[in-house]
Here is the input.
Amino acid sequence: MDIKEKVNKYFNRKSKFSIISDFLFIALLISLLIPQSRVEVVAFINKIRVAVIQPSVKSKEDVVQLSEKDYNWEVESLDGNKYLLSDYKGKVIFLNLWATWCPPCIAEMPSIQKLYNKYKDNDQIVFLIVSNEEREKVSAFMKKRDFVFPVQTTKYQTPKPFYTESIPTTYLVSKSGKIVIKETGAANWAGERMQKTVDGLINE
Here is the structure.
């Protein structure tokens, strides 16, 4: 039996979950045996997570309502224009907190790009992809990676409802200011479930 036949037999015999588990185990072994490969391994693991994790909508009991004070948060575009979150009040807000050095952040960005591509011409939704790094560093990262969705920076602490100790953390806010999704860690933002959720919020 040649290698191609063995590979085909493996994929036909294994479940999707088993295949993912096998790859995660191999990645863990590589990171232990070759320490300098850990960054690449972490990125690889998070790409697998993005492939299988879709964000979940919060139950009604867990939904957080933004206050007027929460909207008083300033972000700055890469061209130096400053905005308050209140400028987007009444719109659906996709808010992602990230950093250029964060492998899970990078792993989920292609799915954010796909989501942005679908809704970029819809004036009922705004994308805030916010880092607390310097604008020059963020701009260089975006050019290198060929991402074209809008990104912003901030020097101000995030409002309490958006406080997190982990990145990436992503929020989806309704037109009425309710946080209907809070997802920590890399996820697939271009999946069918997410698009249905966004469409529902846009049509409210």
